[in-house]
Design a protein that fits this description.
There is one protein chain. With about 375 residues, the chain is α/β, with parallel strands linked by helices. The chain has 2 domains: about 140 residues, Aspartate Aminotransferase, domain 1; about 230 residues, Type I PLP-dependent aspartate aminotransferase-like (Major domain) (Aspartate Aminotransferase, domain 2). Strands 2-8-7-6-5-3-4 form a 7-stranded mixed beta sheet, sandwiched between helices. Strands 1-10 form a two-stranded parallel sheet. It has a two-stranded antiparallel ribbon with strand order 9-11. It is globular. The structure holds pyridoxal-5'-phosphate.
């Protein structure tokens, strides 16, 4: 038989699947998986059920390829109300099958094999897979532990005349870093200097803690024209399985994204778009309760880990906590397996989110998007000798 796509040789089963299998085998509490083990708001589920059963014409047939206009309009109005960003719902907003599909389409809309792409490590794993599939080249810049922030001189060195695009993820998975205005200004200045596009993954945009503010890079001077901002309702509403994501970008970039989307998935689950349009319409009312829920869960896990003898890093955003591995000579993978087998707690070893630095081998990632019962069970398991 003839060979398959060469790039596949470097693709492995994702670490999330591997850890989840081990967790099931060992009957361990799973704080690895990066999604809630409980449902989002009931009112939104009810709206969704109603939409499937409604008499809206063709509601159970293909949705328009760029997305239902009601949903695109509310995405545009939220961008205006939350961040002062002005986008035209018709020509600058597109609905995708989760942020994952938007990220895939962004890579294929922008990249040619001769291009270089800058990525901060640790990175969300789909960025690298997408770069590889387009045959572009990855340039990695490390967010250094324990602060998980970049060094400007290292970022400057990564740019060249071949740099086409940069991935930004803020709030950042897995470190919980939220880039501040000064950092974003530094990134923006380099992108403008070298004429580079930014694909800004903001799926945790509404999950920041205390006084920490999420700033979309597109809101900085001269950045709107070169930025594709990607987000998703999955994280904000706790229904990751519904896969409603979107990208907002200037007209020419949006057109390019839609050209890829039409030959990829073409359109997104139609009735769920109706429900999400209403969900996003109620965002301002809903967010305080959402933030409070996750803030309490963060505090519960951080305190519990400290009581169990760990020294976790409190995140500025996201529902992840990185925790240094106690001084026991184990790397992240060995330690994760040890925790699954000996303490019945599953976490994620972050070294697979790195290409250059060894920092990932010194940490494990906990996810606190779990019921208090599950978080307490994990903490009690970790406390047992
Ligand atoms: C940083 C980041 N980007 C994108 C995604 C995927 O989002 P979606 O479920 O909307 O495809 C995730 C999911 O964990 C994520 O953590």
């Amino acid at each position: 038989m003839k060979s398959l796509n060469n790039e596949l040789k470097t693709f492995k089963e994702s670490i999330f699947a591997t850890i989840s299998h081990k967790a099931v085998e060992a009957n361990a509490v799973n704080l690895g998986q990066g999604f809630p083990n409980f449902d989002g708001p009931n009112w939104l589920k009810d709206l969704c059920a109603k939409a499937f059963d409604s008499d809206i014409p063709n509601i159970n047939q293909y949705a328009p390829s760029p997305g239902r206009i009601e949903l695109r309009e509310v995405i545009a109005s939220n961008a205006r109300d939350f961040y002062g960003l002005s986008y035209d719902a018709n020509s600058e907003v597109t609905v995708f099958n989760g942020a994952t599909e938007a990220l895939f389409c962004a890579a294929f809309a922008l990249l040619n094999p001769e291009d270089e792409v800058i990525v901060f490590e640790p990175f969300y794993d789909s960025y690298l897979a997408n770069i590889k599939l387009t045959k572009a080249t990855t340039k990695v810049v490390t967010l250094h532990a324990p602060s998980f922030r970049f060094k400007l001189e290292e970022l400057e060195r990564a740019f060249s005349k071949n740099t086409k695009m940069m991935y930004l993820n803020s709030p950042h998975n897995p470190s919980g870093t939220v880039f501040n205005r000064e950092e974003l200004e530094q990134i923006a200045a380099l992108c403008k200097k070298w004429d580079v596009y930014v694909v800004s993954d903001e799926v945790y945009e509404h999950l920041t803690f205390g006084e920490i503010e999420h700033i979309p890079i597109a809101s900085l001077e001269g950045m709107r024209e070169r930025t594709i901002t990607i987000s998703s309702a999955g994280k904000t509403f706790g229904y990751t399985g519904w896969k409603i994501g979107w990208a907002i970008a200037p007209k020419e970039l949006t057109h390019a994204l839609r050209m890829i989307h039409q030959f990829n998935t073409f359109s997104v689950c139609h009735p769920i778009q109706i429900a999400m349009a209403e969900g996003l319409n109620r965002l301002s009312e809903y967010l305080p309760e959402f933030k409070e829920l996750y803030s309490k869960k963060k505090d519960l896990l951080i305190k519990g880990l400290k009581d169990a003898g760990f020294d976790p890093i409190s995140p500025e955003g996201t529902y992840f906590v990185l925790c240094p591995i106690p001084d026991n000579g184990m790397n992240d993978i060995a330690y994760c397996l040890h925790l699954i087998e000996k303490h019945k707690v599953a976490t994620i070893p972050p070294s697979s989110f790195y290409l250059n630095s060894d920092d990932g081998k010194k940490y494990i990632r906990f996810c606190f998007a779990k019921t208090d019962e599950v978080l307490n069970e994990a903490i009690s398991n970790l406390k047992k000798k």
